[in-house]
Amino acid sequence: MAALTGMRGNDARWQDGRTFGMVYDAGPEAHAMLETVAAMFLHDNALNTMAFPSLARIQSEVVGITADLLHGPEASGFMTSGGTESILLAVKAARERCREERGVTAPEIVLPVSAHAAFHKAAHYFGLTIRRVPVLADWRADVVAAAEVVNENTVLVVGSAPQYPQGVIDPIPELAALAASVGANFHTDACMGGFLLPFMEQLGMEVAPWDFRVDGVTTISADIHKLGYAPKGASVILHRTKALRKHQTFVFDDWLGGFYASPGLQGTRSGLPMACAWAILHYLGTEGYQRLAQVTIDTHRRMVEGIRDIPGLAVLGEPEAHLVAMAIAPGYEEALDVFAVGDALQTKGWFHDRQTPPDSLHATVSAGNAPVIEEYLADLATCVGEVGGTRLTDRSTNYATLE
Ligand SMILES: *Cc1c(COP(=O)(O)O)cnc(C)c1O
User: Fold this and answer.
1) What value does the mean pLDDT of the chain take?
2) What is the pTM of this model?
3) Ligand 1 pocket check: which of 20, 80, 84, 166 to mutate, most ligand atoms within 8 Å of Cβ?
């Protein structure tokens, strides 16, 4: 225990609200509840739900709750280990459907440059070609450019709600219509927005259309381990209908070990994140999520406004939900280096991801950041003053790492 405690000495201080992303904090009472549930389900295995019927029921209820939230009366799907697995499965399902229905053997994905890297991972794993689509000045996918690359090999068109880098919602109805025009799937990547946008809408905020109410949307990924405030390892992949879902699953009945049916990429599958996801959905309920959504959006708006008040800094685009890309304001590029600001913030315990292009610091705001947002903005102003014209030679960015 001492060794492990020691190893954690330099880990992100998310409990203090000083990490923008990676950990989503619904408060100490929620943690205590989740730790009890985690201990209950620590050893359970969803590989075979004949042995653990509780996990079959948990999965079915979590998927049902998510389908209701995303307005998919006939939607059907599974829990997965995270957004990446949900995306891999959406790509696999699109490939299988279009091979079966349209005979596509050289499948292509039409993918905005802002879409998550997990789609490239899926294309790499599963042998698809990506047709990249630029974004417009507002960082939304360029529908006209997408129309130019949609063709008879297109099996999937992708849009995000919101996209990760700048936090804007792509023109989902237009992109989904393009997909439908060639009989392809359309995936809304709502890994970030899936458990936030519905509650914003319920609170009366304006939210661009993105869910199953949009014609042509065939799959949606929504991460419970982000703004659903579950611990790591919980996402949902939904298909518009159960008939479409069959292209996702894998069944093999010619093995000495017996009949093998598997919804996702994992074999042995921990019950822990599944039970915790079920628990936090019920613990917070509609009221809890609305409260956290309001706090998150208020904090985000304050952050955007506070950044824009500091000379030399800018926020890219008009982020619609809870994401921020902080960059250097036009005209200040020589005078200030946003990565130097990021490193200075880190010495004060604040953690942002670096991203590029363009060079910017990313923040995923959630309720846990609310109590310290004024302290953050004060430190940010101090850091900008401190770094002055310092320009770092290390331009590396770090969304995710290998070792
Ligand atoms: C987080 C995220 C993903 C990937 O999800 P993981 O849970 O990290 O695997 C995909 N798309 C978007 C928009 C995301 O924010």
Assistant:
1) 96
2) 0.97
3) 84
- The ligand 1 atom at the shortest distance from the C-alpha of residue 223 is 7
Which structure tokens are listed for 168? 């804007």
Q: Which atom of ligand 1 is nearest to the CA of 160?
A: 13
Query: Going by CA atoms, what residue is nearest to atom 8 of ligand 1?
Result: 83
**pLDDT tens readout for residues 333-384:** 999 999 999 999 999 999 999 999 999 999 999 999 999 999 999 999 999 9
Domain boundaries of the chain, sorted by first residue? 13-21+286-386, 28-283
Ligand 1 centre from 84 Cα, in Å? 6
Cα separation of the two ends of the chain: 23
Do 317 and 167 meet the contact criterion of CB atoms below 8 Å apart? yes
pLDDT greater at residue 11 or residue 187: 187
> Which one-letter DSSP state was computed for residue 287?
H
CA of 191 to the centre of ligand 1 (A): 5
Topology of the domain comprising 28-283? Aspartate Aminotransferase; domain 2 (3.40.640)
Q: Which residues line ligand 1 (CB under 6 A)?
A: 82-84, 87, 116, 118, 160, 164, 189, 191-192, 223, 235
* Residue 93 buriedness (CB in 10 A; 0-12 / 13-18 / 19+): buried
Q: What is the mean pLDDT of residues 21-30?
A: 91
| Distance in angstroms (rounded) separating the CA atoms of residues 401 and 403 | 6
Instruction: Check residue 24 and give its pLDDT.
Output: 92
Report how far ligand 1's centroid is from the alpha carbon of 50 (Å). 31
Counting from 1 in the atom list of ligand 1, the atom nearest the Cα of 364 is: 15
Q: What is 13-21+286-386's CATH number?
A: 3.90.1150.10
Percentage of residues in the chain having pLDDT higher than 90? 94
Alpha-carbon torsion angle 159, 163, 166, 171, nearest 10: 30
